[in-house]
Structures are given as C-alpha cells and as structure tokens.
C-alpha cells in the first residue's frame, strides 16, 4: 500500500510547512507539498503528503478527512497514480494530429480549401 496522501479543498493560506506540521502529529512526514499555479504563484487548493509508512498514512487519513480548516472541510485520501494525459484538442506527446472528421481541414472542404 502506498504512503502518499492527497489533500484537497485546502484553504489558499496553507503552506508546505503548515501542511507538514499538521500531518507530523501522525508520524514521520517524508514530504509535504502544496500545488501552486505556475503563472500566479498562488495555491491551487490541493497538495500531497508522503508519510514514512502506510500505517502512518492510514492513521492520518482516518483522523483528518473531513476536518474543517479555516472554514473548509478538507478531503484526505490515498493518492492515485497519475493518469496518462489524454487531451481532446489534438495535441499529444507525438505532436499535433488533425481532427478525425473528413469534411473539415485544409484542402478537404474546410477553411482555405474546398471540394469541387
């Protein structure tokens, strides 16, 4: 079992240090990180905490899930593995792929080209 914990619905005032101190009551915290928006530098309202053991993680989840922090009820669960990024806008790690429709696009009846 994993010892990585997802913490959601965090107030924007929570920092890495305060997150770590709150979870350290339940055991040794390996890392604590609040996710920040790269453009604005503000909190995204969620973070991840990694505990030293799975037992410590379970104890923290049981005790902190649903607790009110600055008027917000936080969500504390085991972190799920990251899913593959399936974007719907046509971009992928391999590059841009055109739409699956045959009636739109350059040279096929869309903008700039037509069927005659």
Automatic annotation (TrEMBL):
Gly residues composition bias: which ranges?
106-116
- Write out the biased-composition intervals (Basic and acidic residues): 80-89
Q: Where is the RRM domain?
A: 3-81
Question: Superkingdom, according to UniProt?
Answer: Bacteria
Keywords (A to Z) from UniProt: RNA-binding
Establish whether keyword RNA-binding is in the entry: yes
Segment Disordered: which positions?
A: 80-116
What is the protein named? Answer: RNA-binding protein
Organism of origin: Roseateles aquae
